[in-house]
Structure formats: structure tokens, C-alpha cells
Write a structure and sequence with these properties.
single chain, 274 residues, mainly beta, 3 helices, 10 strands, 45% strand, rod-shaped
Length: 274
């Protein structure tokens, strides 16, 4: 009887201890931590190509959010231009062919050289408008005896014209849909120049005096000369983006003195655009 009573008392104390002890909080409800292994890997996350500038938000547990900054995007680099337009420098050189009446006093052909600086005012894919200023010089042999006159030509030695011209060049561009490398244009300009005396006609025994030469005295070699130039031009933009080459064909009219000089200049050029 005493053993049974002892067992009953032990069970009673065990039940009392169970009810009086504090209840533990459920781990599933209270534990908001997470293992490091549960954190997503950046390398496995697919790229987000959306344009939304907001930061990504991810949840880890109830009521807790962790911010994750979007990685910086690389800026797109602008592709280099294959045909460059803008300010440029150009050099021309080639023959000039004189027409009558100036060819009666000079050789029918000479040499012309130009140094030009310009700017492409309008730069469209299919159209370009440029303004250009040129310094030029022509050199032609003078005839010792005129073919048409019964006396020595007043032009002795070289016949030189030095001057400057300002011109505009509208041009149409041809080629591909995105890059047009061929340009066909028209040069129209005008300016002034001079033709210096290379010998003293009054004191040279091989030439008649200015008075004896009459209305043909000095021909172009006096005062300021007016210059008009116009003609077609073709240009090709090379694979070297800043360089182009081409051909200028100009019909030149030089006005001064009793004779008008007309010539056809066909000059090759090389151009560098800055």
C-alpha cells in the first residue's frame, strides 16, 4: 500500500511541474533568422533587362525585407564615325590649260597650286554644304614672241597669278544607307589677285617698251585682278576617317587689263578633316 501511494505522489508532482513550468515559443513562429546557405547567389540570378530604376527587394522571413542594389550598368560607347565632317584643310595641285586670247602670250598650259581651309556648314547623310577660302598661285611660261602680234610679247619669263578665292560647295553624297563615301558637288566662288612684273619691259632689249606694245602693254601684269571660278568636284572619303581625296575642275576667269585670261584647272586634292 505504501508503494502505491508513493507512485501516486510522484505522478502528482510531475503533473504539477508540467503545468507550472513556462511554455516555449514555437520556433516556426518566432525564429526569423535564416541560414547563410539560403541567401541567393548573385551569379545564379538571371539578368534583369528592364528599365525600372528601383532597387530589387527580397523577403527573408515574415515582416523582414533586405535591400539589394542593382549592379551598375555599362555605358554604351558611341561608335566612331567612318566619315568625319567639320573644319578641314586641303591642298590642290594640277595643270591649268589657258584659252585664247591669253594663250597667245603664254604657253597653253601651266601649273596651279591651292591651299584651302573650310568648314562643312550643313552635314546631312545625303547632302553637305561647305564654305572654303583658298590661297592659290598659277605659274605659266610666257612666250618670247607673240604668235598673233608682229612684236615681242609683253609677258616675258613666267606668267604668275597670285591671289585668294572664297567659295561655297553644295554637294550630294552617294553610297550605302548608313555611310556615304562619294560626294559630287559644285564649287562657285570669286576673289582677287595680282600678276607681278618679272622683268622691266622698258629697259629689256629683248622686249618692246610699254608704249610700243600699245594696248597689249603688260596684258595682265598691272593692278588688281578680279577672279571668278566655278566647276564640278568629286570627293571620296577613305577608310581613314579624317582623310578624303578628290578632283576639282574649275573654269577660271581672270579679269584685268585689256585681255581676259580664261583657263580650265584640273586639280587633284587631299583633304584632312579635324
Amino acid at each position: 500500500m505504501s508503494c502505491l501511494r508513493a507512485v501516486q505522489l510522484a505522478l502528482l508532482f510531475a503533473l504539477l511541474g508540467l503545468f507550472l513550468s513556462p511554455q516555449p515559443v514555437a520556433a516556426a513562429e518566432a525564429d526569423t533568422s535564416y541560414d547563410e546557405d539560403d541567401e541567393p547567389d548573385d551569379g545564379d540570378e538571371p539578368e534583369d533587362d528592364s528599365d525600372d530604376p528601383d532597387e530589387d527587394l527580397e523577403d527573408f522571413g515574415e515582416g523582414e525585407r533586405t535591400k539589394r542594389a542593382r549592379p551598375a550598368r555599362k555605358k554604351k560607347q558611341r561608335a566612331p564615325r567612318e566619315v568625319v565632317k567639320g573644319a578641314y584643310a586641303k591642298i590642290n595641285i594640277g595643270p591649268i590649260f589657258w584659252l585664247p586670247p591669253i594663250s597667245d602670250f603664254t604657253s597653253t598650259s601651266g601649273t596651279e597650286m591651292d591651299f584651302s581651309f573650310g568648314y562643312d556648314i550643313v552635314d546631312l547623310l545625303g547632302f553637305t554644304l561647305s564654305a572654303e577660302a583658298s590661297l592659290f598661285q598659277t605659274v605659266t611660261n610666257g612666250d618670247g614672241v607673240s604668235v598673233e602680234l608682229p612684236f615681242a610679247s609683253p609677258i616675258q619669263g613666267d606668267f604668275r597669278v597670285i591671289g585668294g578665292v572664297v567659295s561655297v560647295r553644295p554637294a550630294v553624297n552617294f553610297g550605302g544607307r548608313k555611310v556615304k563615301r562619294v560626294s559630287l558637288g559644285l564649287n562657285v566662288g570669286g576673289g582677287a589677285g595680282t600678276s607681278p612684273d618679272l622683268i622691266d619691259l622698258d629697259n629689256n632689249p629683248n622686249a618692246l617698251s610699254r608704249v610700243a606694245a600699245g594696248p597689249y602693254q603688260a596684258v595682265m601684269q598691272q593692278g588688281v585682278l578680279g577672279i571668278v571660278a566655278a566647276g564640278p568636284s568629286i570627293e571620296y572619303y577613305t577608310k581613314l576617317a579624317h582623310f578624303s581625296v578628290g578632283l576639282d575642275v574649275d573654269f577660271d576667269i581672270i579679269i584685268g587689263g585689256p585681255v581676259i585670261a580664261m583657263g580650265l584647272a584640273t586639280n587633284l586634292f587631299v583633304k584632312y578633316t579635324f
